[in-house]
Recover the amino acids of this structure.
């Protein structure tokens, strides 16, 4: 067994090559589905008798899923990047901007501003997120709680508004919801899609904005944790395993995005709601009987 991520989280964590592949696979499948990747990366290793890979490993492998978002939404992201740059460089010529340019500039800045809440809360509660909040009981209740909120959102949602119709308040509400995803088991896509549905967005629009909003947060947290891991010294084998997990997460994540977008075009999130509740109950049962830790 190869030493991996020594001294991280004040305990030893070991991942061999096969375990790294499994972690990447789980991360890729669950990152964009509203079922919580963090919960699954915590639960599945426990069921298999492995140590918790840790919040840092999850954050770094999310760089793979970030690559999936960048590829899948490359046209949207390039357009928004250009619009954001134009809003700064050509601000004095703003009276000449057409309606489409203004729409793209507005959305670009909405994504930037919507990222602030998770950045603030992530830095303020970094220790708790990486340690105390990874409790299986917290994950179990988070899975169930978000499922109930998502179910309520499906009941009251009007499914009328598109991304183009979003305003500043909408982005801050969804941004605050994204900060809730710092609690393991909540799910980044789950909470942001839920908030979007409460705000009247169509399921597809809520999912698309959720994915676009995730880019700055995943990039920042992934690079920060990668820097800390490298500073601790993970060795060549540990780094290789981390790369494997990240690449697998990226490839599978791309397929996961395509699946969810297609699914939400014609179907509700009911299947994910039921899955979350069943999994949450199972986790609480297994944890209470110390079958998994």
């Amino acid at each position: 067994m190869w030493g991996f991520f020594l001294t991280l989280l004040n305990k030893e964590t070991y991942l061999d090559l096969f375990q790294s592949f499994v972690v990447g696979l789980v991360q890729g499948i669950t990152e964009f589905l509203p079922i919580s990747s963090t919960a699954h990366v915590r639960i599945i290793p426990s069921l298999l008798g492995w140590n918790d890979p840790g919040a840092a490993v999850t954050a770094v492998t999310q760089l793979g899923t970030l690559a999936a978002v960048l590829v899948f939404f490359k046209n949207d992201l390039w357009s928004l990047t250009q619009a954001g740059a134009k809003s700064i460089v050509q601000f004095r010529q703003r009276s000449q901007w057409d309606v489409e340019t203004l729409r793209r500039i507005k959305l670009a800045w909405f994504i930037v501003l919507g990222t602030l809440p998770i950045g603030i809360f992530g830095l303020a509660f970094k220790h708790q997120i990486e340690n105390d909040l990874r409790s299986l009981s917290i994950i179990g209740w988070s899975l169930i709680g978000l499922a109930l909120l998502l179910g309520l959102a499906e009941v009251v949602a009007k499914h009328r508004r598109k991304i183009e119709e979003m305003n500043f308040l909408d982005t801050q509400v969804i941004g605050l919801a994204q900060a809730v995803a710092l609690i393991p088991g909540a799910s980044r896509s789950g909470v942001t899609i839920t908030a979007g549905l409460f705000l009247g967005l169509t399921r597809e629009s809520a999912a698309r904005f959720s994915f676009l909003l995730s880019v700055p947060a995943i990039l920042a947290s992934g690079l920060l944790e990668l820097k800390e891991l490298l500073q601790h010294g993970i060795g060549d084998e540990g780094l290789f395993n981390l790369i494997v997990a990240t690449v697998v997460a990226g490839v599978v994540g791309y397929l996961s995005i395509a699946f969810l977008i297609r699914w939400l075009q014609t179907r509700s999130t009911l299947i994910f709601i039921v899955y979350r509740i069943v999994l949450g109950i199972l986790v609480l049962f297994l944890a209470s009987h110390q079958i998994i830790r």
Notes: The chain has one domain: 3-288. Residues 72 and 258 are 8 Å apart (CA to CA). DSSP finds twelve helices and two strands in the chain.
